[in-house]
Amino acid sequence: MSPDFIVGLISQLLKTAALLIGPLIGVTTLVGLVTSVLQGVTQIQESSLTFVPKLIAAGAVLLVMGGWMLKVLTEYASTLINNIPNYF
Question: What pLDDT sits at residue 5?
């Protein structure tokens, strides 16, 4: 295996990971930002107020996009496993 080939595999892995985690991190960051602004405006400093909305948003994203995420991960894994004989 050449170093370029290994770098290509790692690059594909990182792209797939970013594609899978991007929506989840984006939504939870947005919900956290909105919650922080609301806490700043109302001056309510409750720690569970920041955690619960993010947890609900993450659950909603996983429910809505879970099938797509599983499909992308399955395609990546099957391609990787099917190409094992070609790697050597």
Answer: 86
- pLDDT tens for 12-45 read 999 999 999 999 999 999 999 999 898 888 888 8
Residues 8 and 10: their CA atoms lie apart, in Å, by 5
Q: Are 58 and 27 in contact (CB under 8 A)?
A: yes
* Neighbouring residues of 38: CB distance < 8 A, sequence distance ≥ 6: 44
CA 81 to chain centre: 22
What's the rounded Cα separation, in Å, for the pair 16 and 35? 29
R_g (Cα) of the chain, nearest Å = 19
Distance CA 28, CA 23 (A): 9
pTM, full prediction = 0.79
